[in-house]
Amino acid sequence: MNLELPIIGITMGDPASIGPEIAVKALLNENTYSICKPLVVGDVGVFNNIIKRLNLDASVNAITRVADANFQFGVIDVYDLKNVDADQLKFGEISAMAGNASFAAVKKVIELAMAGEIDATVTGPINKKSINEAGHHFAGHTEIYAHYTGTKKYAMLLVEENLKVIHVSTHVSLRQACDLVI
């Protein structure tokens, strides 16, 4: 293992949706470990459940400190926030518990990055309605990042090889978006 690889904090996304499955399947690609040291932030129970339900060849290393991560292929390091009640989690349903869990994961990766414990972040898909039901009133990831990093002027940039797209507006009506272009 190359010790110089960046540590990437990956949020689980909404635990009642596809985010945890996407994270697990991405980390079951051995090439991922050749370009970074991945660290998932979320609830260990959610990941154990996904691995079991999908009969995947992986296990989880539950940690509460980045320093305890092993970054070993086949063993997914999960920074455990212990904030999902598996008995109450209903896949495909909006809930304050799921919204709070996904929000907490985003907030934690921001804190870890700001503290220099991780080098970059990747976010799993969230459900904005669930986050709002949990009392966190943000339009999306971009606004959460801006708030917790103290950034006043910000934009969302999407990059794919040679294509770069920056949004003129996010999370506004078409009328508002047109007004923002002028």
> Would you identify the CATH architecture?
3-Layer(aba) Sandwich
Counting structural domains, the number is: 1
Helix content: 25-40%
Our Rg estimate from Cα atoms comes to 17 Å
Indicate the proportion of strand residues. Answer: 15-25%
Number of strands: 7
In the sheet with the most strands, the strands line up as 3-4-2-1-5
Which CATH first-tier class would you pick? Alpha Beta
Query: Which outline best applies?
Result: globular
Integer average pLDDT: 93
CATH topology title: Isopropylmalate Dehydrogenase
Low-pLDDT runs of 5+ residues are none
| Main pleated-sheet profile | 5 strands, parallel
Going by CATH, the homologous superfamily would be Isopropylmalate Dehydrogenase
- The N- and C-terminal alpha carbons lie at a distance of 51 Å
Based on secondary structure, the structural category is: alpha/beta
Helix tally?
7
Q: Give, in order, the helices and strands.
A: EHHEHEEHEHHEEH
What features would you describe in this structure?
It contains seven helices and seven strands. With about 180 residues, it is α/β, with parallel strands linked by helices. The chain has a single domain (about 5-150), classed as Isopropylmalate Dehydrogenase (3-Layer(aba) Sandwich). The strands form two sheets. Strands 3-4-2-1-5 form a five-stranded parallel β-sheet, sandwiched between helices. Helix 4 (about 95-115) packs across helix 6 (about 140-150). It starts with 6 loop residues before the first strand and ends with a helix.
